[in-house]
Write a structure and sequence with these properties.
The longest helix has 13 residues. By secondary structure, the chain is α/β, with parallel strands linked by helices. The protein has 8 helices and 13 strands.
């Protein structure tokens, strides 16, 4: 039997892949993944066999990986960011119940929250919450509760999947909910194409963020009441009393 490695490529792949992730992919003969993510690594690993499925066929993708492992192949199931944060780790372990003889190892990666925070400065230095605004798998009513609760508790908030063609006003809705508990002057930031060509970032107020257009390649950061802008960087104090 082969072994399966569930690998997070980091937000941009290549330079933001961990050494452990690169080693896992290198030792596998077969790489399985969503078409977009496979395209990020194809050139670097020309000797590998690549198997892909489009979006919404995640279960089939997992089954393909286990079927190859049954043939004795070591397989890398790749995804962006960290495999255990909105990635493929959970689903692979769920599908793996049908293949108990096959070992699955989860290889951590750099998630968009980490990569984007480094671009903006240091927005995640204190307690923070990560929330996806995609209602593909989560009812919007539940997303609303989580956004409001995080804002009420004054967490720094990192938003994944803030907008798409079908969800153009979701970030605006989320900002309006947060403005019930946070000041309009709250320091916020956006980062698009983290670690990839065309990377761009902005720092702005929550009031301005509400009317800012973003897309699925953008990660959004909303500060807490102590977050400030220092020399063009978004900084949340750690909270040291004597500083």
């Amino acid at each position: 039997m082969g072994k399966i490695y569930v690998v997070g490529l980091g937000p941009g792949a290549d330079m933001q892949m961990t050494m452990e992730a690169k080693a896992a992919v290198k030792q596998c003969g077969i790489i399985v993944g969503y078409t977009v993510y496979v395209d990020l690594v194809k050139e670097e690993y020309p000797d590998k066999v690549f198997l892909t499925t489009p979006m919404t066929q995640e279960v089939k993708r997992c089954q393909m990986a286990f079927e190859e492992a049954q043939k004795g192949q070591d397989v890398a199931m790749i995804c962006s960011g960290d495999a255990g944060i909105y990635g493929m780790a959970g689903l692979m372990l769920e599908v793996g119940k049908e293949y108990p003889e096959i070992e699955v190892e989860i290889v951590p990666g750099i998630t968009a929250a980490n990569g984007g925070a480094a671009v903006l400065g240091a927005p995640l230095m204190h307690d923070f919450a990560v929330i996806s605004l995609s209602d593909l798998l989560t009812p919007w009513e539940k997303i609303e509760k989580r956004v409001k609760a995080a804002a009420m508790a004054d967490f720094v908030i990192c938003l994944y999947n803030p907008s798409s063609r079908k969800r153009k006003d979701y970030l605006k809705k989320a900002c309006e909910m947060m403005l019930e508990y946070k000041s309009g002057d709250t320091v916020c930031g956006t980062v698009r194409n983290i670690g990839r060509d065309g990377e761009e970032s902005q720092i702005m107020t929550l009031s301005r963020l509400k009317d800012t257009e973003v897309d699925m390649f953008t990660t959004v950061f909303i500060g807490n009441e102590q977050t400030t802008e220092i020399n063009g960087k978004m900084v949340t104090p750690r909270g040291y009393r004597n500083v």
